[in-house]
Structures
1.
Amino acid sequence: MDIAKVKRWLFGAPRDPLNPHAHSHIALIAFFAWIGLGADGLSSSCYGPEEAFIALGVHAHIALYLAVATALTVFIISIAYNQVIELFPGGGGGYRVATVLLGPYAGLVSGSALIVDYMLTIAISIASGCDALFSLMPHAYLPYKFSVEVFCTSLLIFLNMRGMKESIRFLMPIFLGFMITHIFLIVYGVGVRGNFVTVVVQDTLKETYDLSQQVGWVFVISLFLRAYSLGGGTYTGIEAVSNNVNRLASPRIRTGKWTTLYMAVSLSFTAAGIILLYLLWGAKPELGQTLNAVVFKNIMADWPYRDFFLMLILVLEAGLLFVAANTGFLGGPAVLASMALDAWVPNRFKHLSSRLVTQNGVLVFGIAALLILWWTHGSVSLLIVLYSTNVFLTFSLSLLGLTKHWLKNYKKVSHWATRLSISAFGFLITTGILGVTVSSKFKAGGWLTMVVTGTVIALCLLIHMHYRRTKKKLKLIDAVFATIPVQDSRYYPKLDPTQATAVFFVGKNKGPGMHTLLWAQRMFPEHFKNFIFLSAGEVDVENFGVHTSLVKMQQEVEDTLQYFIDFCHYHHLAAKAYSVYGTDPVSLLDNLAEKINTEFPNCIFFASKLVFENDSWVTRLLHNETPNALQRKLHLKGIQMVILPMRI
C-alpha cells in the first residue's frame, strides 16, 4: 500500500503556500467565521446560564436582572474586542494585545492562560456534548461515555488536519440547526407565557424589595454578583475572532467586526432568552437532566411527538458543543504559533503542514484534551471552573492593555473617551468576575487552574531563556565568520559532475554553514572539486498569506546562498546553489538531494547540528530536527550524509 496515496486521500492534496490565491482559498468570510469561531461562545448557552440560575437557589426571581446583565455584558466585551481587531489585524488576540500594550511577560501570562483555556475548551465542550447525548440514554450506557468522547475528539483532530474550511463545512448544518431550533423555542416559550411577563416583572421587583428588607441590600447584591460571576462561562469564546483575524477574508478588520457582531447578537439573545425561559416556565434542577432539557420538556409538554423533538434539540445541543470544541483546534494552535514566533514555545509550533495547517498544534491540543477528559472523568462542574478562570484572566489583561493604550494616546485617537470608557468598564467587569470565580471556587478547583497555568508559564520562561542564550551565541559565531574574506570573483572553475562533490545544507545563520564547510575541507583536504549549497525557505504562520513577508523570506535565503557562492568563487572553487520553498523543509530538501545525487553521483552531503554541554531530550526537542530527519531519509536511500557537530 502506498502510504503517500493513503495520506493524500485522508487529508487531501497539498496546497502551494507560494500561490497568491492559497490564503484566500482557506480564508473565512464572516458567515463561516461565525460558525467556526462563534460556536464556542454560542455553545456556552448550554451550560453558562444554567450555572448562573442554579447559583440563585430559592431566589430565582433575581434571574430577570441576570438575563438583562448577561445580554449587556456580551455586547460590552464584544465591542471592546472590536478595538483589538482594529489594533491587531494580524491576529494573536489576547496574547498579542498583552505583549504589545503591557509587555512581554504580561503577554506570556495571557498566552499561557489561552493555551490552557483552549485545551479546556475542547475538553469541556466534548464532555458537555456527551452529557447531553447520554441524558437521552439509560444509565447502563454511561460506562461508554469516555469511549464516545475519545471518538469525537479524534474525529475533530482528523477534520482539522484536513483544513479549517473542511471542518467548518462538515459542522455547519449542526450549527444552523441549533440556531433555528433554539430561536424558535425561545420566541415560542416567551410568546406562550407572554401574559406572565408583566406579572414576573412585578413579582421580581416586589420579591427583591422584600428580600432586601429581610436580609439587607448587601446580601441581595452579593447573591446577584455571585450568580453573575459563576455564569461567566457564558462569555467565553468572544475572544476567538481577535485571536484568528489572520484567518479571515479581506478586508480582515471589516470581516472581523461583522463576525463579532453575529456572535454578540446570537449569544446575547440565546443566553438571555434561556434564562428568561427558566424563570417563566419554573425550571427546577432534576437528577441526570440538564436545566435546558427540563425547561424544553416543560415548553413542549402538550406537543405531539414531544420525545422526538426533545431528542432532536438535545442532539443539536451536543452537536454545537462539538463545533465549539473545534474552536479550540482553531484558536489554540494559533496562539501557540504566535508564542513560537516570540520563542516562548518550541519553534516547530509555527510550522505549517502541506495542507497549510498548524498540525503540531492540532495534535498537541487534541492529545491534551484527551488527557484532561481522562483525568477529570468528563466532570463539567470541575472543567467549567478551570475554564472560566483562564478566560477571564486573558479578558482582564487584554482590556487593561486597551485602557492603558487609550490613556496614553488620547491626543492621537478620535473618540478616545468612548473607547477608554468601554475598555475600562469591560476591565472592571471581567476582573470582578475573575475575582469572584477564583475566591468562591478556589477549593473546588480554582487552585488547580492556577497551578497548571503557572506550570505552563514556568516552562515557557525556561524555553525562552534557552532560545535567547542560543541566539546570542549564534550571533557571536556569525560575527567570527564575518571576518573571512567573501566577495564575488570573475575567475572561478566550472562544475564537473564527474568529480567529488560536497553538498551542504545551510540555514539562515551563516556561522553553522561556514563551520561545516571549513571542517569538510579540513577532513578531506583537496578532495572535493565541486561545492553545492542547498537551502529551504520555510513558509510558516509568520509569512504565510503576507506577500511582503514571503518576498523578504525568499530574499534572505538567496542572500545567504550567494554568500557561500561568493566565498567559494573568491577561493577559486566551483560552486552552485539551489533553493526550494514550502511548508515542509525536510521533504523539500530530501527531494532536492535526490536530484543532486543523480546529477553528481560522486557526492557527500553535509549538515551541522548544535551540540550543548548539557544535551538532553529537551534540547533535541528544541533544535536539530531538520538535520537528523534528513540524515535518516537519505541513509534509507543509500545516500551518504555526514552531520558535523557545532558546540554551543
2.
Amino acid sequence: MFKRRLRSMRILVLGEAYKPGAYSVTSLASITHALFVSGGITEIGSLRNIQVKRQGKVVATLDLYDLLTKGDSSNDIVLQSGDVVFIPPVGKQVTVSGLVKRPAIFELTQNETAQDLIRLAGGFKAEAFPQKTVIERYAGNSFKTVLTRDFSQKEISYKPYDGDVIKVQGSSEELENAVTIMGAVSHPGNYQWQKGDRISDLITSLKSDVLPIADFDYSLIVREKSIRGDIELLQFSLVDALESQVTNYELMPRDTVIIFSRFEEKAEEKRLLSDLALSEKEISHQAKVEQWQKFENRKFLEFIGESVEEAREVDSKQLDSLTKLLTGQKDELDEDEYSVFSRKKLLAPIILKLQKQASIFEDVALFAVNGRVRYPGVYPLVSKASIKHAINAAGGLLESAYLQSAEVTRITKGDNVSIEHIAVNLTETMGQTDSFILQSKDSLNVFPTPNWSEEYKVNLYGEVRFPGTYSIKRGETLENVLERAGGLTDFAAENGAIFTRASIRTKERAQLQKLSDDLRREIASKSFSNSVTDASLSYDDMDKLLKDLGQVQALGRLVIDLPKIQSGSVSLELENGDALYIPAKQNTVSVIGEVNVSTSHLYNDNLSVDDYLEYSGGLKQRADEERIYVIKANGSVYIPNDSSWFAVNESKNRLEPGDTIVVPLDAEYMNQLTLWSTATQIVYQLGLAAAAISAL
C-alpha cells in the first residue's frame, strides 16, 4: 500500500521577518506556517496587518491579535503556490503598565479606542484605581506632557497617540469603613465598620475575645483628627465598656483599638500562661497571635507615620523637656525583655507621634505618673483625663501607695514659665465624681505610706540549727534572728562567722572599679614605662593583671564578733538582704605569701607565728619580715606583737584555728606597679571567705 505525499509549493515571505526569502511548504500551509518557517516577526514588524499578495493583489490580511487574544483563526488562509506573505512595519504603539492584567506594548489600528486598548490589556486588576490614570505623551517639542484621565467611565475621553505610555495606578492601602484591633486580643486584625458601632460590638466577651494577660482597666482608641494625620486618643476600661454605656465609645472609620497587657516582661506573661495550663491547641493559637501581632504592629506604626526603626532609636535627645524631666534617659526597646503587648512597646510610637505633632498652637498631649504605681512613666493625655485615668494608665496603685495625699506638678505658661505643685487626695479623686482634670505636661507623684515597711529578709547558712530565709521587721537584730533559728550547732566555728551586706558589697564593687581604673591610667602614663623597665613586666602580664582584677567579685563582708553578739554585749541591726555564714570548726592554720612553701598546718596551741613560718620552709629573700600580719578567721587583721592596731588585749593576738599568716613582699625590691600587682595577687589568695561560703 502506497502512502500519498503532499505536494510542495514555493512561497515568498518578505518584509519584517527574521529570515525573509523563498520557502518550500506543503500545499496545506497557512499564513502562520509561513511565519513559523521564516523565524517569526522582528521587533519592528506589524502584528496587525500581515498581508497575503497573489498576482500583485492583496487577497487576505491577518491580525495576529485576533488569534492571540480571541483564538480567531478565520483569516489564517491556506496559501497557494507563488503567494507572497508580506509583513509591513509596525503601526501606532501604546504602552500600558501598572495594575492591568496584561501589561505590554500594544499596536493599535487607526480606529481603535481607549476601550479597545484596555480590552487588549486584559482589563484592570482588582486593586487598580483607573479614575486617575496617568498618560505620558511626546509633545513634539523635545518635551513630554502628562495627561490624567478617568478610565473607569464607559466613554473615555482619550484618543491614543503613537508613543503614549499609560500608567494605571493602584488604590490606596488605607482601609475604608474598617477599624483595627490589636494587642492582647484573641483575634487581632481589621474589621468592618458600620455607623453606630461601639467597643462592645468589636469586643463582645472578656472570656473569648481577649487574652488572659489583658489589662481590663487600660485600653486606648487611636483616632485621626485632621487631614494632616494628627491623632487623638480615647481611654477606656474593658469592663466599663461592656457593662456601662458611659465609656462604650462609638467607633469611627480607621480607628485603631489597642488592648494592653498587664505585664511588662515576657517572663511574667509566660508564667501566667503556664499557670493556666493551656492546651496544645491554645498554646499553638497563642503563637499564631504573636506572629500576627508583629504584622499588625508594623501596620500600626506605618499608620501613624513612623517606622519600627525610628521608634526603636528614640533616645533622650529626641524627647522633649517633659520626658527628660520625668523619665531621664529612655531605655532602648528590647523585644526580648518587654512583653509583646506591653505599655512600653505599644506606647513608644504613639508618644513619638504626639511629641512631633505638638506645636506653639497645640500643647503636647502627654502626662507623667511617678511614685507608688505599678508602671511609672509618660502616657498619652486624653480629653478630660482625670486622676483615675492616670492611675489606670500606670497599671494601678501599689500596696504601699498613700491615698490621703498625692501631688500634681504643673507647668504653667505665661509671660514666664512657672511650676505649680497641687496637693490631691486620691481617696476623693479616684471616685466616679472626679473633678480634677489633668493638663499637658502634668506630673502625678503618688507618695508611699509613711513608715511603710516592705518585707525584709535575711539568710542564715551553715552551722545553725534551722538555716534558711527569715522575714524580719525593721530594727530587728542578728541576736534575735539567731534565737529564732535555734542557735548554733555543736560544730559551729563562732569565731569564723562570715557576715555579708548588700550595701557594703556595693561600696566594695565601686572601690574595685576605681582600683582597676587607676591601674589602667598608670599603665598608660609615662611613669609606667619606667616601671616596665624596672620590673620587667611583659604586656601579657599587665593584660592578665587587668583582666584578673576585673573578675574579682565583691563579697561585702562585715567583720563581726559573733560571741559578743550572742552574749548581748554588741548589737547588730539587720538590713534587707543580709546573710550570715557559719562554717564548721577548723583545725588548721594557713601560711601564704613570700615563704618557700605556701601551705596549711594543723593547729597547735603551743606553736607561734615563727614556728609556722619555719614549718613552711622559712622566708624568701624578698620577704618583708617586719610587716608580717595575721588574718583572723572572722576577717579581722593584726600584726604579731603589736596589739595596738586591732585589739585592746593580748588575747586577740593569739593564733586560733582558721587563721591565715600572710608574708608580704618587701617594697624595696619593687616599684609601685609591682607592689600593686603583688597586693592584687594577695587579694586573690585571701578568698577565704568566698571559699568558706561555697563549701557550706
3.
Amino acid sequence: MTKKLTKTLSVILMLTITWFAGNAQVNEIWKTELSGSVLWQQVNSYGNYFVCTNTEFAAYNPETGEKLWSNQQFANIANEQIQEMSGSPLLSINQGDAVTLLDPFTGNIKFNSSQAGISELKTKQVLYKANGILIAGKNMSGDPIMIMVDMASGKTVWQIEEKFGRIVTLSELSNEELLIVTLFKNYKLNSKTGEIKWKNSTSKEAEQLESMGAFGSLLQGVAEQAVADEDFIVNFYKHPSKGIFIIGAENKNESQTSSGQTSISYENNYTAFNIADGSRLWSNPVQMRGQLGDFTFYKDGMIVLPNDGNRTKINFFDLQSATGKWGKKGRGIGIKGGIYQHVKTEQGILLISQSGEKNYLNFLDPSQGLMTFEKPVRINGEVIRTVKSPKGILFITTEEINILNYSTGELIFDKSVQTLPGLSVQNGNEIYAFDTKVNLVKLIDISAGTVKNISSAVLKFEGKESPNVLELREKGIFISSEQNVAMIDYSGTLVFQKYYEAPREPGLKRALLYAQAARAAYIGANSYYAAGVLQSAAPDVKEEDALSGAIVEGFGQVYEELGDAASDFAKQSFQQANARFKATAQGRDFIIIFGKIDKDNALFKVNKDTGETEGSINLGEEKDPKYAVDDVTGQVFKKTGDTQITSYKL
C-alpha cells in the first residue's frame, strides 16, 4: 500500500469515527412503563417532572424514573390547565370554575375551591412566614369569604366572612402579622388565628361611605363591580426603620375632547399609615401627576418619582407633614421622561427615565433638590443593569453599554458598545461584550473606563440568526444562537464556527425553548447578582418586600436559612430552587441544539469548546414529538412507546 493511499484511508476512517461519535445516541439512564398512553410531559422551573396519560397525572423522580405519586382525578387534563402558582412551586389546576392547588413534591391536594364552598376564587397567595395559603373569594351564596389553609396538612386554619371587597395587595409584616390592602379598607390580621387586629378606611372618601351604613355598602359594591375587570396598580412601601407603611396607587382618568376623542390622564397618590393601629398619618394623600414610577425613602421623608410621560415632576415630601420641599412653592422639579429606575450613590441618585421609546439619564442631588446635569443624557434602550465604576456608573441597556460620568453628565465612550444583555458577561473588573453593530467581541475595563476590540474578524451566523448568548470559557469566548455556535479565543482568533440546520416546523422546538428559558432565568439572576447590582439594591428592595430583600442580600444562602425554619413544603421549595441556582452558576460544557439526522428530528449535545456533537437523541419524523427537557440538569425525557418514557443524560 502506498503512503498516499494510507493517508487517504486514515482521513476517511477519522471522519467516519467522528460522524458516528457525533450521531451516537447518548446514554439512557432509565426507562419506565406507564399505566396509560402518554399525552404530554413537562419539567417545571423547580425541576419537578410530570407526565400526563389517559389514566393519571403523575410525578416521577427525574434521576431514577421512580413514580413519586399519581392522581387519577387529573388524567387526560390539558397541559394548559396546569400552571405553576405565582410565587411558589404549587400547581394550580383549573377545571372550569373549580381550582385545585397541588403539592408537586407529594401530590397532596392542598386546596380545592369547590370542596371549600367557594364559587368564585379571587385571591390565592402562599404566605411562607405563616406557613399557609391565603384564599379569598365568594361562597356559594355569593357572600365574601377568606380562608387560611395550612401548608402542611391542607386543612383550614381559620375562616372569615368579613366583607373585604377587592383585595389589591398582601404583605406579611412578620410571622404572625398580615397586612391586607383593599379598595376601601386596610386590615392587619393575626395570620395564625385570623383575628382582625385593626381595620381602617384607606381614605376620607372611603370613611364617608362607611358612615353611610347600608347605603354606603351598596355604593361600595357598585364601585367595585364597575372596576371588576380592571387591573389596579398599587405599590406597597414599608419604612426600613419606622413603624409606618405607604400605599401608592395609580388612578386612570378618561375624558372626551371637543372632537370626540378620548383623552387619558393619570394621577398617582400616596397615603401613609401607622402599622400599630392603621391610622392615617396625613389628612390628605400626596398627589402627583402621572403613572406610578419609582419611589425611595430618604432621610425623614420620601422621594416620589412618577412617570408623567415627556415631562415629569419629582418631589421630596416630609413624612410628618406631607409637604413638598423641592421646586417653586414646593411643587417639585421637572425631569425629562417618566422615571422607572433609580440608583443610589454616595454623590447622589442616578435617575433613569423614559419618554416614548427614548430613554434618559439624569443625576439628582437630593440634599439640595437639584438636577446636576445641564441636560439629560439620551441613551438607547431600557436600562436593566448598572455597575459602579471609578469613572462613574456603567450601564447596560437592552441595546448598548456605556459609562456615565455623573459629575459632568458625559458618556465615557465616544461610541456605545451596541449589544444585548445576554451578550455581555462580567469577569471581575472586566466586561466582555459582543458588539452587534460591527459583529466583534469587545473588552470593557470597568475601572479604567476603556473599551477595545478583542476580535478582528467579523462574526456572522448562518440561517439569518444573530448571536444571543455569550459565555466565558477557559479556552475562549463562546457565542451562540438557536442553531449556531462559535468560539473566539482571548487573543481574538476564531477557533470554530458551526451551523446546525433547523427543523422546518418551529413548534418542534417548543419544549426545548421552554427549558432554555427556565435555565436562562436562573443564569440571568446569577449574572445580575455577580455584577453587584442586587447587593447594592438590597436596602431599596427591602423597603418594598422583606423576603425579596433577604434573597437579594444573601442570594442562595437565604434559601438554606429559610428552609431550616420552614415547613417541609417550603424547605423543599427553597432547597430545590437553591440547588438549581448553584447548578446554573457552575456552568457546563455543552449546549443542546435541535437539528436533523437525515430526515429525522434530533436533539444534539454540542461541546462548547469544540463545536462538535458529542451525542444525539433521535426524535423521529413526528411533527409533535412527546419530549421534555430539563436544561438545568441536561436531561431529556422522550416518549419511546405509547406507554413508555425513556430518559437520557446529555
4.
Amino acid sequence: MPQVLIATKLDSVAEEVLRDAGIEVEVCPGLDENAMAEKIPGFDGLIVRSDKVTRKVLDAASDLQAIVRAGTGVNTIDVAYATSKNVQVMNTPGANSNSVAELAVSFMLASCRKLVYADSSVKKGLWEKSKLMGQELQDKVLGIVGLGNIGSLVAAKARGFEMNIIGFDPVISESKAADMGIELKNLEEIFSEADFISLHVPLNDKTRGMIGSELLERLKPGAMLINTARAEIIDPQALMDILTQRDDILVGTDVFFEGDTEGEKELARIGDRLIATPHLGASTREANRRAALAAAEGIRDFLIKRMVRYPVNNLEIPPDLDPRFLELTHLIGEIAYYNIGGDQPHEVLITCYGRLNKHTELLTGYLLKGLMDIYQMEVISPREAEKRAIENGINVVRRIPDDTKGYGESMTIDILSKKKGYRETSIRGTITQQSELKINRIDTFLNLDLIPSGHMLFSYQQDRVGLINDISSALSRGGINILNIRFTTDREGRSIAVLQTEKGVPAKIFSEIKQAVSAYKAFMMKV
C-alpha cells in the first residue's frame, strides 16, 4: 500500500482523497530539513507547500516516487536533483491564483479609502473625517508586471472598477493582451504612467532585483507599489532609498525581505504609507481547499495510475537520449534571450541533427519550457509548452535537418523577434564526449567551441588589434580574474569575445569594457 507524507498544513480534503484511494497518510507539518530527512524514508509520496525539499531530504528518501507542491512555485524544491533521483515533481497551477489576485485588489481599495488608518482611528474614539478624504479606482491607471494566471485575473477584476490597464510581459502577444483589455508597455513606461503597480512574476535569476532604482525613481506622485509575489523581485536598498527620499509613495506588500518570520520589518519605517499582510496571498479557505484537492489528486493518480497531471520535470526520457541535451536546450535559449535583447520571440525554429532528429518533439518541449521560464512565465511542463507558446503568439517550427553538413548529434535553434524592429539569433550546440555542454556557433561566428560555465561576459564588436588586451585590462583594474577566453571572427570583420570570470563583473567595469571596444552588443550571464 503506498504511503504519503503531508509535510504541511492542508485542508482535510487531501487526507480524505488519499485514504479513499487506499493510500496510507501521515500529516507532519512544520518539519525542518533535518526532521524531514529523518521522517521521509519509507514514504512513496510527499506533499509540501513552502517547505524545503533539499538534496539531504532527497538522499534520505529511499522510496520516494513523487513530490507535489500544493501551489505553483517550486523554488523550494531541488527539481534538478529530484530528476536525477527519478522522482517526479508536480505542482497545482491556478489553485491559489484567485485569492492572490483578490488580495492585490484589496491593497488598492484599502489605499484609496485609507481603511487601515480609518479603522484604527474610529476604534480610538476619534472622528477624523476631514483627514480621510479618499479617491476612486475608476479611471486610475493600473500597471501589471507579469500577465500569467494571477496577473490576468487582477486585470479582469480591475476592469470591473473601470480602471485603465497597462501591462508588461515579455512573452505575451499584443493581440492576447488586447483581448484582456491591456495595453502592453515596457517597464519604464509602466513605472512612469501607473497610479498602481502590481507585481506578478516568479522569482528566478532574471527577476531577482529587477525592480531597481532606475524604475523606482520614475514612480508618479502618490503611486502605490503592490507586491504579492516575492520580496526579492525588488532591490531592497533601492526601495528603502526611494521611500526615504519621497514621502508620497505607498506600498502594499504580502512579502518581506526578512522572510516569513516574526520580528521587525524594515518597511514598517514608512508608517501609514505601508499596508502589510503576513503572506496571506493563498490564505483563503477556498484556495487552501483547491490546492489540497489538486495536490492529493495529483499524487494519487501518479501512485495508483502512473498518470502525471501537472509535471514540473519530465522523467519520460528515452534511454538513447543523453539527458544533458535537455539542459542544452535551456542554455541555448538563455543565450538567445540575451542575444536579442530580451524581446518577445515571434518565431522559434529548432533543427536536430543526426540521431537527435527522432527526439525533436521532446527537445522542442524542453526548449519552449526553458524559454518560458527565462521570459518569466509561470512554471509549466514541457508537454504543455508548445500549446502555451502558440497561445502567446509564438510560431514554432521544426525544421528538417541536412545531415550532409556533418554536424553529428547537435541542434540549431533560431529565435526571431519583431517586437522592436527585426531581430534574430541562431545558435548551434552539442554535447562533448566528456558530457559537457558546448556552443559551436553563435550567429555568424563559427567554430566558437564555447563550454559555458559560471560568470560569462559576451562582447560583440568590429575586430581590431588589441581588443582582448583592452578587455583584460579593464577586468584587471576591477580585480576580476579571467578563467577562460573564447574569441573568433566572422567574414564581415566582426568579432566575438566570450570570457569566463571568477566572479560577476560590476556594472562600472562592464560599461568601461563596452566603451573600450566599441561593442555593438554586450551582455553578462551566469550559467
